[in-house]
Amino acid sequence: MPVHVGLGLLSYEPDAWLLHPGSFGTDLVGKIEDIDANAGLEEPVEPEVELAKRLGAQLGPTGAIAVDERLATSVPHVWAAGDCTEVRHAVTGEPAYLPLGSLANRQGRTLANIIAGRPDRFPPVVGAAAVKVFDRNVAATGCTAALARQRGLRPRSDPRLPALLP
């Protein structure tokens, strides 16, 4: 099975994939018929921060609520957790907005410990996510090579990767 990196999935049907390498242009993989050029799976998600803004809480560069490792906002005695908050990205070290249920769940448990007086903190994350699309598993973690290069990192890949996969 060929491995394609740096592509976004536009549409999928059994035996028919439409992938694109960036914002413009397409790279077809598989059998594609009757392509709707406006079709896409990605819907922008924006954090719900209205209450935090009314309280005077600082928003981070992503537009989500800025919190520290103990999930405290810039307002004393106000904490935030879940899809409205930024997290620290383990690869870039920068704030990131990753609205993933697994992270929101972990933040909720961490915040419960903190409010209960237990010594806990929410660590940096890599943003691992996996989903099953029909009979295929799709997963991602870390950041793209392009983002890594933008941040001054030197990403490496192993050209043998396709041969290592089943």
General description of the model:
- It is a single chain.
- The chain has helices spanning 50-55, 101-115, 145-150, 161-164, and strands at 8-13, 16-20, 27-30, 87-88, 95-96, 129-133, 136-140.
- The chain has 166 residues and is of the alpha+beta class.
- Among the domains are: 1-43, no CATH class; 50-115, FAD/NAD(P)-binding domain, CATH 3.50.50.60.
- The strands form 3 sheets. A 3-stranded antiparallel β-sheet has the order 1-2-3, with no helix packed on it. A two-stranded antiparallel ribbon has the order 4-5.
- A hairpin with a 6-residue loop joins β2 (16-20) and β3.
- The model is unreliable at 16-42 (pLDDT under 50).
What proportion of the residues form beta strands (DSSP E)?
A: 15-25%
Kindly report the name of the CATH homologous superfamily of the domain at 50-115: FAD/NAD(P)-binding domain
Number of helices: 4
Helix and strand pattern: EEEHEEHEEHH
Q: What's the end-to-end separation, in Å?
A: 8 Å
What is the CATH third-level topology name of the domain at 50-115? FAD/NAD(P)-binding domain
Spatial strand order of the main sheet: 1-2-3
Helix content: 10-25%
